[in-house]
Fold this protein.
Amino acid sequence: MRDTRESRLLLVLLIAIAFALITVDIRGGEDSPVDGARQAAATVFGPIENGVSSAVNPVGNAVSAIRDSGERHDRLAALEKENAALKAKLGSDDRNTSRLKQLNSMLKVAGEGQYGIKGAEVIAIGAAQGFSWTITIDVGSHDGIRRDMTVLNGDGLVGRVTTVGPNTATVLLANDPDFTVGTRMEASDELGFASGQGDRPLRVELLNGKAEIKKGDRLVTFGSQADKPFVPGVPVGIVSRVDPSGGDLTRTLYVTPYVSFTKLDIVGVVVEAPKKDPRDTVLPDKPKPTPTPTVTVTVTPSANAPVDGQFEQEQ
């Protein structure tokens, strides 16, 4: 259509008529006079809209499926991550349960012996100093740790501090060949010196060569002057073998230590010694002996057995 004055007037007239019809339709509501025309238009253009919709819907569905697939993938990944975190948490809880048990045992020992301790975690084994049996713990001078302090755990004597850094310390274990500690026998109070032998039992030389010692007797630390390097009363171990007395001035014992030196994790450094010697109070309770079953045999004579030692005569 050419852009003339008449065409412009026609366009304005059509726009005015459109606005008038819209106004009449809105005011008329359900009884609108143009409702029939709208339905006719729907009848004509409806199939075309459905066709377009059918053609477009697969694309929309595909887009929705891709979106849902992405959501499912994200959810699956989130679930897998949650499961992995849960498994890690369970594993961590198992470890924490073990550590809590160790800590409780150590606090019990500290309470019974009245030791002031600083808890620590074993972070390494061995050391640059060349000791055969050492561990490194995660506390140092900043935590009040000093050289020649006693180290224990919930089982008994672990060792003594030999080297101290700002945040770590080295502990010489009680089973090291260079390790020696004064000991006292439970009840009898016999004194001696225990030395480490690596993965073998501790060797103890009693000062009394005629001391009456038997397998199963127990030892604790005797203590050092000014409680350095050893505080008194820390459980050391149980006598596993006693060498025969040969008239020597000393007597040799072999002691199985309470502490398992290959399974150290949580330990405590004694930063405050007890006010008095705890003696044998820190030793664990002795196991109750297992009762030996007694068998009683009762003989019941049969009905045909001889009476008064007489034998029946043959008929």
Q: What stands out?
A: Residues 38-68, 311-315 have pLDDT under 50 and may be disordered. The chain is about 35% helix and 25% strand.
